[in-house]
Amino acid sequence: MTTISKESRHTEINQEISGLLRSTNERLDSGLPLDQIELLCGPCIAKVKDLVTEFESSPKRLDEYLQQHVDVLSCIYFKSEPGSVLASLTSSCFYQLCVVRSYKHVVGFLSNDVSLGQTLISRIQNKGIGEFETYLLLLWLASFTMVPFPLENIRSGLSSFLYDVSIENLQKYGSASMTQKISAVLLSRLLTRSDGAEQLKMYLSTCCESWPEWDHGRKLGHLMALKLILKHSSSTAVAALAPEIYEKIVLMDLSAIKFHLDTSIPNTNILYIMGILSRLARFYLISADYQKVSGIVNNLINDILNPLSSRFDITLRETMAKCLSKIVSFLRLRAVNYAQQLIWFITKQLRIPELESRPTSYNPDLTIDSTNLSVTKYHTALLFYGFLGLNRVLHAEFVPILLSLTHKIIQGSQIRDASCFCLWALFRSLSQDDFKVLLTNKSMVHDTWADILRVLLCDEDYTIRRCALPVLQEFIGRFGPLLASSVESSEQQRRLLVERTTLLLDSDKALTGTDLVKCGYSASLMVPTLVDVLSSKEVSFGYYYRCSSLLVELIEAESNGDGFTVGLDVSQDGSEYQAVLYESLQAGNLLCLLPLGGLLRSRKLDIQPFSLRLDTNSVLSHHSEFGHKVCHLYWYSSRLAADEGDIEAQEAFWALLVPVITNESSLKGDFKPVVLTSTDISSSIPILGEVFEDIRKRVKLGSVLIARQLPWKNLNEPQLQQMMLLVSDKTVDAETRAALIENNPRLTANGTTFTYKPEFPFLDLLDDYTLTNKGDVGSQIRFACLRHFQDHQGPIDDSVKYKLVRLAAESMDSVRSMAFSLLTGETYESVRPITYEEYFHKLFTFYGNLPEQHRPAFWEGVVHSVAGLKVSKALANSAFRQLLIWYDSALDSDRQEMISILLRQLKLAKPFPQLDQRTQKTLLATLNLFVKLFDASLAFPDQWNPNALFVRAYNLQLNAPAMRTALVLQIFHYLSVLPSEVTSKARQRVCQIYLQAKTPQIRRLAQETLFEIVNDLAPSNKTLLDFTEPSYKLTPKDCKVLETQLMCI
């Protein structure tokens, strides 16, 4: 299968967009009515919009074709009526282009022909246009404000018009909508023109006067505009008005927050206020007004962050961090000391005692009080440090403090993602010389190194583990040689450590403990972090088991390794981890049985298992947590893995097994891997008699959970035979029986050849078609048998193949696909997803190579797919279509064989037996197939015997229910109108059924069939038609007359 590169794919999409736009543009010139044009062009434009979204991950791929797309879209837009569906769709495409490629880039491709000005103005004045059209027109008009000549040259009063239209749309909504944003762009560009100073003063005067009366929704649009206006820091007109914006607009809202006068200010407004404050700070820095800068910092921290921290979402935290980092960046250019003071001021907000005195050295043991920890402040501060790193304004002296902070937070905190970002940005900003200075404190650098590895391997959140990957890539990629030189080992080992770590980072495979040890890292690096988790009760079961498995994996990998281990100089020691786990267990943390059990299994546990005195009876009570039961089961299975003769462990294990595996959670989620590991014990450990009897009774009553987890290898032969009897016992639930088959490794007899045990009637079970109110539940048995046969690669002899041929043609998807994969050697996974059309095409092709003795089995199965009365229409239609295709190209001998086999399927033994449900379904499906063949006007072979079909149908109708009678009557109908030796007999039989019907339903069916026959043979014969009226009471004499007249036609 060829792989198409992203670049080629994007080129194809661009070409498809061009083709759709070109065809739409041509249709607009075709002169068709407007409604037809919209009907034809609407889907094309909608498709263009969807295609544009595919460039979100690589927006620059649009650039090569962007001018072409914009030009054709512009033509289409101007050819459509304002407010029409087509105009709305076209403008929505423009908006999508702006979303993907940014409006600042797209606006440069719009036509700058000023003669379009009047057209744009007239369109935006149209009251019927929608939001997308308004956005496009505002964007286009905004591009006109950039012209280097007076706007009056384009149109008289254009400046006033643009001001009015931007203000109107700026205040239309209060949700930072797309029209508000582009209106703010238009207004800011208009007011910051060289000839717009007076308009700017007028606008600001209006804002200042009306600000107290405006609601927050109306204020939002103006805040957006003011932020864009303040972007022009070099404008003297804006600089002159900046104090007024600060004092009369911003401080008014901040006072409302500070003094709790208004607590309803939306987060979006606060976000723009912070942006405005950041830009105001730049104006004051330019004028060296540091008092005002200090005031703005206090506004951000004390008037916004502190009082509103409880409602600070991720966006507000990020915005606050960016604003503060920008102020530091401005200060670094003019007042370095003030910049350092601001960084420490932010750091003080974290309330860490050791940092109050502004230390300059690394401290791995900072005191962070989790009960008084403000996630908002810590998250904002870490993002702030990260942005400082990206802007390269973080002073080298502060780096040890930052590493002290991240060392403490990155392990176990809910803001670890910000810590990863902070470290990543820091490493990007450091030079080689800076890092050499840091290496003078080897413990600090190695602690950071170990912290990154711990997050990468041990973190609970997969997203955070992925966050640590680019951090380590920057760390090793930039400073690998320097890091290697800091390790106390041989030159070759140091080089190998860095090289292997680099190779590990380039792999897409998830990092494992074994990978880490193979690189040369000591397991002791991870142990402190893992033990912190494992000694805690406030951890999810899934994460706890993952850490437990990691601990054991690391210990095993190190003991089984090649001895290549390079030690890092870290401040944490995990040598006493077993003692810590034991103490935590004694303190009531029963989850500690998982790591202790894992260590016992790997023979790494230093504590004697018998010294752990556990109260199993209390765990077996109904009130005990299920997780505790699982932990106990795991512990005792570990004891058995270490010593099979441990009688105490055997008794406790079997006592816990049934309560665990009968719980629905045992095979779900986090508990499943632990339970599966626990139940996989040695076959030499016998199951206790009373436990087996309890299990057998529960399985007989339909316990699927036990059937799926039955310890088969621990059963002795008598116990095994008792369980095998349940497989064939149809009083047992079908799903339970299927589970007994799927999970039983002891179905085959011992020996070199594959043979099923006599107790397992494999071939008989392939004929299990048990039907309940749930449908064909026997299909679960058939599928389980086939799955087991496939897993054990059983030989396909004639008897098995006969069954497989039938099953490969039946209507149950899973059974059909599995049987076909066994017959052809294809994998089940490749057969199961294919369409019905593909499958039955393959099946009928396969039929052509079947030996004669297996063909009856094929038709016995395929009638259920082609003509089953309760199969899906999609299945039946596809299967029947492929049958007709096969029939059309088949030899006459194959056609005759098909008809003969189908007729044999309709033959009943004498005396007529009591039919089981499966046989009844097969008869109905076969009858229905003949009906469908007649409906399709199929050309039957010349040698076929219609009399045989009549006889079979006649016998099947005797004392038959209404459903079978209906199908037989349809066959009699076709035989009545087709010239053959049974034509008269078929007509006569329909009349007899009409006269002799025992139920009104069958009489009605016969009457309808008779009407169809008369309508086909003599539609103008009123006498015959009268006999077929529903209200007509047919007498034996009438029946004779009817038969006679029908014979004469």
What would the keywords be for this entry?
mainly alpha; two-stranded antiparallel sheet; ARM-type_fold; TBCD; ARM_TBCD_2nd
Please render the helix and strand layout as text.
Elements lengths: L5 H23 L5 H20 L9 H17 L5 H17 L1 H4 L10 H8 L6 H14 L13 H13 L7 H14 L5 H14 L5 H14 L6 H23 L8 H20 L3 H19 L5 H21 L1 H13 L26 H16 L8 H11 L6 H14 L2 H7 L3 H17 L3 H24 L5 H16 L6 H7 L7 H8 L6 H20 L16 H10 L6 H9 L14 H4 L6 H17 L4 H15 L9 H9 L9 H12 L3 H5 L8 H11 L6 H9 L19 H4 L5 E2 L2 E2 L1 H14 L6 H12 L3 H12 L3 H4 L4 H12 L7 H13 L5 H17 L2 H14 L11 H19 L10 H12 L4 H16 L5 H14 L3 H18 L4 H6 L8 H12 L2
Antiparallel strand pairs: 1-2
What would you note in describing this structure?
Residues 409-480 form the Tubulin-folding cofactor D ARM repeats domain. Pfam families: ARM_TBCD, ARM_TBCD_2nd. InterPro entries: ARM-like (IPR011989), ARM-type_fold (IPR016024), ARM_TBCD_2nd (IPR058033), TBCD (IPR033162). This is Tubulin-folding cofactor D ARM repeats domain-containing protein. One of its GO terms (molecular function) is beta-tubulin binding. This protein has a two-stranded antiparallel ribbon with strand order 1-2. By secondary structure, it is mainly α. The radius of gyration is 41 Å and the shape is flat. Helices cover 66% and strands 0% of the residues. The protein contains 52 helices and 2 strands. Among the domains are: 1-156; 192-308; 796-942, no CATH class; 956-1048, no CATH class. The mean pLDDT is 86. Strand 1 (771-772) and strand 2 form a beta hairpin.
